[in-house]
Amino acid sequence: MYGADHKPDYGNQMCLKKMCFQAVRKHFAAVSTEAVLDLPTALIKDLLPHLTVCQLDELQPSLNRKGISTYSEWVGILAEMCKRDRVLDFHTEEEAKHEVMRRLFTFVFYGFRKGLGLRNGFVNRNAANLNTPSFLWAAANCIRRFLVIASLHEPFHRLTAEQRPVLNLLEKHVRIVDVSQFDVSKKKTQAVLYVLHRLIDHGAAKELIVDGQCPIMLVWLLHGRGSQYVDSKLVNLMHSKCCTSQTPPSGADGAMCTSSFETKTSDDMDDKGIPCKLSKLDNVEVDESDLTLDPQVLCQAFTPCDGSPAGVCSWGQIESLEIRQCSPENLRVLNSSLPTFFSLRSLTLHSISTFTDLDVFDMARALKQLSESSSNSLVDLSISVLPHIELMDSLLDASPNLTSLCVKVQTFFWAPHFAVHPAESELRIEKLTIKVAQVPTDLDYVTSVLKRSPHLASLHVAGLRPLTGSSQSQLLTTLAESNRSLRSLNLEDLNLSECLPEILKLLKAHTLEELRLNDCRLLEKWTDKQEGLQQLVAALKAVPSLHTLGMAQNRLAPTSSNQPSCWSSPRH
Q1: How far is CA 533 from CA 111, 500, 512, 527, in A?
Q2: What's the pTM value of the predicted model, to 2 decimals?
């Protein structure tokens, strides 16, 4: 026992406790999971921050059964690896863990290279525990999104050899494949094509993100994977004499099929390749000693000699497609595939510059052909950047089965402008997002869509500026009268300074659950700001369904500080 005047040395106690935790981390396999779980709950919670990622992952299921969450540990790791505001995007234990594993897997898989979006503090301290097969296996068992950086080809060759068990796990668990630009005409990318084939065609991946302007790459990725469109030039390359040989090649680890194509303009500029043009398919020379594009041949070529025969491979079905840096050439490739792209449920396009009217009209025609088929599955469309708001009507009329549409608009007054005559038929839209780059816009094109959308449940409008002589009250009045199913309303960077009566009417007409009026200059022209604010707060409190409210950047503080009781409702 301590003497009457003895004070416990808490510093030494904490140091000893930390040393014990570090010993558990170092000798975790010998200690065993059961021994850790037998510790008091408080002590387990103190231990968790000292464990490795693999140990934390191994313990998590058993800890959850004991009612102990590892959320704070995964979020803590994530906070060290990326900006803290990104941590707020992950609300559950599984979401946070998957993001940690995804980021760390990418960093380790590609050889701890800089520029992969990670701060190095956590990685530097834990490099010895991360650069191991056990971590790659644990991460591959967790991640749902796989980033393909084809210019770093060596890791893909390892996946076809000593790391093949990791590829098997990725094939089972990955749902989203994110592909950066690469040149399919490079021999070094053969392993990349094979891994893509395994993930998309053999595996569970149904979502594809394409980040690059190379149309040849897009043609290869889309071929046979949901659309019935066949690019004759690609097929000729895939099924040329040298590419159709079914004889498995000899050599350790299964050497590649001896067939290739090279572009006449290529000087083999390493893996960066040359700028890709659709016309490159017209300038192909086949060299029978190099490579193949046929996934069937690739699959046989990379099958180990002692492995089971690959057989005939099935084709994957792409359900979600996102194209970043969508060039006009890529858009033409997509438009060719769209009319029979029956597996596609979600399509997102980000243009490298504003699409032209003709680009959008061509796409609308392809969407129209798709929508006329009973096999059409497309319900979600996001496109940026449109040259003007009227083209939103063209897209909706072409694809009336859409339930979600997101458009971003950037108008250039000098650009050619084609008249659009919207239809009047009812739309199925349930979620609509319109973002405009702060240029005067004819609100009639927006309100006409709203009037045709009785099922609209979520609306987000940002940056909309009415033409001279018009007011945002037109938008609010239409919402109150035509969109009674509305549950979520987000108005951002709109001038609502003269719209208090319409806002009050809107709140009475709807059972809103979420309302955001950020940067809407609410008080700017109110004659009696305190009285107007009281009316607004009273109307908000009268909406029993409202659980989320955002009114940032409206300079409410000076007025509301004089009336602290305004925001006393516990729901807001």
Answers
A1: 57, 9, 19, 11
A2: 0.84
